[in-house]
């Protein structure tokens, strides 16, 4: 108990140091202790091959078939700076992702403080997240776009809309999912009466995406188009929410679901796949529009900035929970969401986020091959995880709808008063 009391004392006096300590311990667990260290299924070798090629001078799209957006290439190359031999690369990737995780934790604390939340609780909850998801925290680069998205939110809260939306563009060009934050941010700015800032931010967003895309096309038009087709043509991924629906349809005799190896993952082919995918795509578009609308309404009712961050959480969760792909590493997108929910004392939302992360670890990687084989327990665990992600969206929407007295009461209970950041 003495180490626990000592850590609690540090948390009171130096919360950032305490959060960094928790994060480092969690990272050590993902390297040394099962089930957190289990990396029996994964594609770290694929990224090692990319890093080796990039560091040798090869260019994405032109010299290497590369399925990620352009700014993922320098991130992946950086993970090989220590070395690209298997053991060295594993260590280098862990070092880079730990640094990214620390940035995510610190930015989560800053956003919590700027929106009337408890920065200490936010940082500690975010720092504990690796213990909920295991080795995927250090074997994937998803924390890079997460960190860029948080930096964008912090810039927007500081009334630096051009920088903020340019960062959303950079995050999108690292991995596509942050694009759903843009409608929320623009609606939030318009709700604040900042029309010119919204226009400038929108121009910065489009210009950033266009400039980075132009570089990719300049390297190789055919290679860049092939990367786009790769993502558009992939079948429903076995771990996604649409796949859970298709497996349920199969169980009730509504068509046969066939598992296929495709696009470096397990996919699902079913007679209803097109219709189900289209329905979920429509649901995603509708959810993002609704989130943006509610974020704007909440900001007008209570201009404390929280609507922006809460809307971003909901939109990102919707992208994961309603898209046709839900890889295990998508759980990392919820790392700051857990911190912010804890910092705002939104315990049902925090519980749903933690459940989604823990269920991901319960399924992947230890039961992934069982899922591919159609074992019932693995299918049920994956379906429960997907339901938890959708619940995150629903609970965030409920919080966004709370305006007026309920919001004021929640703010009064918060341990840190809202202190809007001043423009610099």
Give an overview in words.
The protein has helices spanning 2-13, 15-32, 44-55, 72-78, 86-114, 119-127, 130-133, 136-139, 143-157, 161-172, 181-191, 195-219, 221-233, 241-251, 273-301, 306-322, 335-343, 347-363, 368-373, 376-401, 405-413; strands spanning 236-237, 258-262, 265-269. With 424 residues, the protein is an all-alpha fold. The chain has one domain (11-30, 41-413). Strand 2 (258-262) and strand 3 form a beta hairpin. Helix 2 runs antiparallel to helix 5 (86-114), helix 3 packs across helix 4 (72-78) and helix 14 (241-251) crosses helix 15.
CA(first)-CA(last) distance: 45 Å
Please indicate the count of domains: 1
Overall geometry comes to globular
By DSSP (H or I, 4+ residues per run), the number of helices equals 21
Radius of gyration: 21 Å
Structural class by SSE content: mainly alpha
Topology:
Layout (H helix, E strand, L loop, with lengths): L1 H12 L1 H18 L11 H12 L16 H7 L7 H29 L4 H9 L2 H4 L2 H4 L3 H15 L3 H12 L8 H11 L3 H25 L1 H13 L2 E2 L3 H11 L6 E5 L2 E5 L3 H29 L4 H17 L12 H9 L3 H17 L4 H6 L2 H26 L3 H9 L11
Antiparallel strand pairs: 1-3, 2-3
Descriptors for this entry?
424 residues, mainly alpha, 21 helices, globular, disordered C terminus
